[in-house]
Amino acid sequence: MKQTKTGRVLAALFLGMVFGLFLHFRQMRYLGLGRDAFLAQQSRYFDQITRLHSIGFMAIAGIILVAIGIGLYELIAAAVTRVLPPSTVEE
Question: pTM for this structure?
Answer without folding.
Answer: 0.69
